[in-house]
Design goal:
Elements lengths: L2 H6 L1 E7 L6 E8 L2 E7 L6 H15 L6 H17 L7 E2 L12 E5 L4 E2 H6 L5 H25 L14 E4 L2 E4 L12 H19 L3 H15 L2 H12 L4 H13 L7 H11 L2
Antiparallel strand pairs: 1-2, 2-3, 3-5, 4-5, 6-7, 7-8
Helix pairs in contact: 5-7, 6-8, 6-10, 7-10, 8-10
């Protein structure tokens, strides 16, 4: 395919980074179907990139941040999730595209739809549809958390838990954005608790008021169903055992003391809704 033809059939849907090395996600028409092409790029200056990578190695317990590392991590994590029956975008062989293969490129199926966050934030959405999708998410969430803890597999957790990374389309709930993952097995319960707080905060930001958030929270807690597991995960954040985690928790409380969707508030509400 010539460069001119490729550009004519490819539409950029997201761009993040610097110049010609920026990260770009686009949709390309190939024959009678559309494919998503993700080209990994540099999101930060080299100095900041080095500082973030150092933090990942020493404190955060996260995977590598280089272009090659993020591409490889996304392939591996998506494959892991699918092997356990959790829906992700299918990753296709790179040679489905006519232009040369590139290790920093990922080709995925295209599914028309919108994110679960967009549905939660839609003021005109049918609330019965919202609750149906939340129940569906909550059931799989419980199973995924249970499996992650049982296998001590932090890669089964979203590093950035948000309903923006859950896609609705073709009757599916598709998880995506795995280019960075958690790596610490000893902290698996704490990490599951952090993911829980992150998703609840995401839902809180999407809701139009507190009453709507609390009603949806009850639906999610009921679908999750495992009260004991909820208590364990929330306690790992609200009452951490690690000294550094306790310090971080105190700083977090101070920083977000006026935030109605602060982790401590949404986790406490989630635990209460499950009782």
């Amino acid at each position: 395919m010539s460069e001119a033809n490729r550009e004519a059939t490819e539409k950029t849907i997201d761009r993040n980074g610097f110049g010609d090395r920026a990260q770009v996600i686009s949709v390309r028409d190939v024959g009678d179907r559309s494919l998503v092409v993700k080209r990994y790029g540099r999101k930060r200056t080299p100095l900041r990139q080095g500082m973030v990578q150092l933090g990942h190695w020493t404190f955060a317990a996260k995977s590598g941040t280089s272009i090659a590392a993020r591409a490889q991590t996304e392939r591996e994590v998506a494959s892991l999730w699918r092997s356990h029956g959790f829906d992700t975008f299918e990753i296709l062989p790179d040679d489905v595209l006519a232009d040369p293969c590139d290790d920093s490129r990922l080709v995925m199926e295209f599914v028309d739809g919108r994110s679960l966050y967009a549905l939660l934030a839609d003021r005109d959405a049918d609330e019965s549809e919202v609750r149906r999708e939340l129940r569906r998410f909550g059931t799989e969430w419980r199973r995924r958390h249970g499996l992650a803890v049982e296998l001590r597999e932090p890669r089964l957790l979203h590093e950035h838990g948000t309903f923006k990374h859950v896609w609705l389309g073709d009757g599916r709930q598709i998880n995506f954005d795995f280019e960075i993952c958690w790596t610490s097995q000893p902290r698996i319960v704490e990490l599951a608790g952090r993911e829980t707080a992150s998703f609840l905060r995401s839902m809180g930001r999407a809701c139009r008021n507190r009453a709507q958030f609390e009603a949806r929270l009850r639906v999610l807690a009921d679908a999750y169903g495992d009260r004991e597991q909820i208590d364990v995960l929330t306690a790992a954040i609200l009452r951490p055992n690690r000294p550094l985690a306790r310090i971080g928790y105190c700083l977090e409380r101070l920083k977000r003391r006026r935030d109605e969707h602060a982790p401590r508030r949404v986790l406490a509400a989630f635990a209460a809704a499950a009782r």
